[in-house]
Amino acid sequence: MSAPRTSRSADLQRLVDDGYEVAIVAGYLVVRDVPYVDRYRRVRRGQLVSTLDLAGDRTIAPRDHQAWFAGALPCDREGRPLVNMVHAQHQRRDLGGGLVVDHWLCSKPIGREFVDYHEKMVTFVHQISSHAVALDPSATARTGRIVAADGSESPFHYVDTATSRSGIGNLSDRLAGQVIGIVGLGGTGGYVLDFLSKTPVARIHLFDDDLFLQHNAFRAPGAASRDSLAERRAKVDHFDRIYSRLHRGIVPHRVRMGCTTAHLLDGMDFVFLCLDDPSAKRPMIDRLEDRGVAFVDVGMGLQAGNDGLTGVLRVTTSTAEVRDHVWDRNRIPMAGAIDDDPYSTNIQVVELNALNAALAVTRWKRLFGFYVDLGAEYFATYDVAGNYIINEDTTK
Predict the structure, then answer these.
(1) Do 102 and 196 fall into the same domain?
(2) Which domain holds residue 263?
(3) Could you tell me which of 174, 119, 176, 156 has the C-alpha nearest to residue 24?
(4) 184 pLDDT more than 90
(5) 237 near 252, Cβ under 8 Å?
(6) Which of 58, 274, 338, 353 is most buried, with most CB under 10 Å away?
(7) Cα(80)–Cα(102) distance, rounded to whole angstroms?
(8) DSSP string over 189-242
(9) What region does 393 belong to: left with phi over 0, alpha with psi -120 to 50, or beta?
(10) MF terms per GO, please (predicted)?
(11) Boundary-marking domain end, from 110, 140, 166
(12) pLDDT of residue 278
């Protein structure tokens, strides 16, 4: 872990100053090269891993008195398991970022919690390593070595402690490194960006040539200020300014997508098509299919009546392996006139924009194994009045 990051938290810096090998991996605090005794009374080295609670780059008091251990089962100097602190033996688990742990530990100060991470990690290290020291007085976790940066840069400006807190880093890794495109930043496209910005994809390319105006503020994520609306910024610049605070890889393109610009989608791993105009979709779909790029196309058709709004949300998925339904069953409206498209009445309501985006992003995550995909549907509709989803074009 780099010195500047530890220096902002006194407890982490004390660990470094004390000579411990400290790193932050996949949102977890790690102390490496911790000596311990195995069941054969051999002195070995393992890793101590703790969840990490942060406010920005600064730690707050630990919320628990538990930790993971990566290595064989820690034992005392006689080779007997440390049953008082090992609460789950041989529970091998992938925490993400290449961090794999084996045992669940627990140790609590009498009558209180740990005051900071220095106290927590040093306490665990001492309880494990004291038995190793009894067999080898030179055994110590205070090696004085500084953990070198591995050269990989997080897509986030600050540590993702939500994923580590949930213990799903190995699943989040399945989304890492992707290059994603979002075409259209109306209500639905803005929420697609909001959801994607919390994932470890490498880059998110934004494509839209419109301005962010007052009506957009009422169906977009967040709350635009009156002053920002007066600036009449492009949608891509408006969203770039917001989401670049969290994600490093936001790439805005103020451009109208069509025949002459569809090539900008080359090199994407996945694309979300969130356009109002069905006639603009054909050249992009042709290009994506030609390049073997998977995509999701969303649509919304709402009608107003005396009893309220009714309508349908649509999510159409297309991959290199499953594409025929798009054409054989006309699953994506691409009519020359918007009036021919039942999904383009232009009534938009913020929660349905968000729901349409959530269905699309959830489908993408199921394709890449973040969620279990039992449905394997490539066309889905949500009926607003009936509150039900119909899955079609399934492959299972």
Answers:
(1) no
(2) 177-394
(3) 156
(4) yes
(5) yes
(6) 274
(7) 17
(8) HHHHHHHHTTS--SEEEEE--SB--HHHHTTSSS---HHHHHTT-BHHHHHHHH
(9) left
(10) ubiquitin-like modifier activating enzyme activity
(11) 166
(12) 84
- Domain limit, last residue, from 143, 166, 189: 166
Which residue pairs from 156-160 have beta carbons closer than 8 angstroms and sit at least 24 positions apart in sequence? 156/200, 156/246, 156/247, 156/248, 157/245, 157/246, 157/247, 157/248, 158/54, 158/56, 158/57, 158/246, 159/24, 159/27, 159/52, 159/54, 159/57, 160/26, 160/27, 160/198, 160/200
Q: According to the model, what pLDDT value does residue 2 have? A: 40
**26 in the same domain as 111:** yes
Same domain for 198 and 156: no
Domain assignment of residue 172, yes or no = no
CATH code of the domain containing 315: 3.40.50.720
List own/partner pairs for 372-376 with CB under 8 A and 24 or more apart: none
Nearest to 299 by CA among 350, 342, 362, 363: 342
- Tell me the C-alpha distance between 172 and 365, whole Å: 9
The average confidence (pLDDT) of the chain is 91
Q: What is the mean pLDDT of residues 118-131?
A: 96
Question: Does any domain span residue 103?
Answer: yes
- Both 388 and 240 in one domain: the answer is yes
Q: Report residue 336's pLDDT band, with 50, 70 and 90 as the boundaries.
A: low
Query: Do 128 and 33 belong to one domain?
Result: yes
| 248 and 345, same domain (yes or no) | yes
pLDDT per residue over 20-75, tens digit each? Answer: 999 999 999 999 999 999 999 999 999 999 999 999 889 999 989 999 999 999 99
What pLDDT is recorded for position 148?
A: 58
Structural domains in the chain (count):
2
